[in-house]
């Protein structure tokens, strides 16, 4: 998938402000369709999140950032991250992909109260919302969207309440839900921020679970360590496991299922690459003929 994104991005690097509005619109549509095509075959939100996790682990994040930047350049707009009285969000990737190209948008983030009865140690909650609307409508009248097509990759600075020497988890509390579901997350190497995958917006809670300890200097590749080959300690709730509580969640990973999923992903990427690259060839040929 990483190579697929790079190939499509490369095909449109020469589309810039000097090109016609029609060419720019066609380029944006192809870029957005390419990213969406990776997730459109997922049967549910859990599978979409699993594919996003694969992209994060396979270092495709930088290419996804570049696609966001290219869409912003071609549309002449930037989806802003609006934070009221704080500077918690360090980065959101895939935000441009999730807003129609003829609209403006914002991701609004506010600190909120921790869900009642959460059985955890230190915890900090944030409310996320995606808003967009046509450019003749003021932002105060934009509609809020809780769901979107492509999972977003969000990096939050660790608040001072969270102890980075202990395991850090991220839980999603969907609108109206009293139970949280753990989402895949990774601590940055310097342990000052956590990156997680959001497949919908509402409340996200960063927390330390009670009774857990962790040595930040522990060798991730040491025998017996479950994070073999992955120096960033991450967690991933099993697909289809449903809502779980911080107290009862078992973070064992089914590596056989993970490897089978990777094989399916490679096959899907190959098929998509053939289809999309043919579309790009037709697009470039049409430009030359004109």
Helix content: 25-40%
- Beta strands, count: 12
How many helical elements?
Answer: 5
The main β sheet shows up as: 7 strands, mixed
Mean pLDDT: 75
Query: What characteristic shape results from the CA principal axes?
Result: globular
Note the beta-strand portion: 15-25%
Order of helices and strands: HHHHEEEEEEEEEEEEH
SS-based class: alpha+beta
Q: Regions with pLDDT < 50 over 5+ consecutive residues?
A: 212-268
Distance between the termini: 31 Å
| CA radius of gyration | 20 Å
Structure description:
The protein is of the alpha+beta class and 290 residues long. The protein is built from five helices and twelve strands. Strands 1, 3, 4, 5, 7, 8 and 11 form a seven-stranded mixed beta sheet that branches. A five-stranded antiparallel beta sheet has the order 2-6-10-9-12. β7 and β8 (181-182) form a beta hairpin. The radius of gyration is 20 Å and the shape is globular. The two termini are 31 Å apart.
């Amino acid at each position: 998938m990483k190579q697929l994104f790079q190939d499509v991005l490369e095909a449109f690097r020469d589309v810039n402000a000097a090109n016609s509005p029609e060419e720019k619109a066609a380029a944006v549509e192809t870029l957005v369709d390419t990213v969406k095509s990776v997730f459109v075959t997922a049967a549910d939100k859990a599978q979409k999140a699993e594919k996003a996790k694969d992209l994060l682990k396979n270092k495709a994040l930088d290419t996804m950032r570049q696609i966001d930047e290219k869409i912003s350049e071609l549309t002449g707009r930037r989806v802003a991250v609006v934070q009221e009285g704080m500077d918690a969000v360090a980065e959101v990737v895939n935000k441009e992909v999730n807003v129609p190209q003829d609209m403006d948008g914002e991701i609004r983030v506010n600190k909120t109260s921790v869900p009642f009865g959460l059985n955890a140690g230190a915890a900090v909650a944030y409310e996320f919302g995606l808003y967009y609307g046509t450019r003749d409508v003021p932002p105060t009248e934009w509609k809020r969207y809780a769901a979107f097509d492509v999972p977003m990759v969000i990096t939050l600075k660790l608040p001072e309440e969270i102890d980075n020497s202990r395991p850090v988890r991220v839980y999603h509390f969907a609108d109206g839900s009293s139970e949280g579901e753990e989402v895949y997350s990774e601590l940055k190497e310097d342990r000052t921020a956590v990156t997680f995958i959001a497949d919908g917006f509402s409340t996200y809670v960063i927390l330390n679970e009670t009774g857990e300890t962790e040595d930040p200097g522990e060798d991730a590749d040491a025998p017996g360590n479950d994070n073999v080959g992955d120096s960033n300690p991450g967690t991933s709730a099993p697909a289809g496991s449903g809502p779980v509580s911080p107290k009862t969640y078992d973070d064992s990973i089914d590596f056989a299922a993970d490897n089978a999923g990777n094989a399916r992903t490679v096959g899907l990427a190959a098929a998509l690459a053939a289809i999309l690259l043919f579309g790009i060839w037709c697009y470039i040929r049409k430009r030359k003929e004109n």
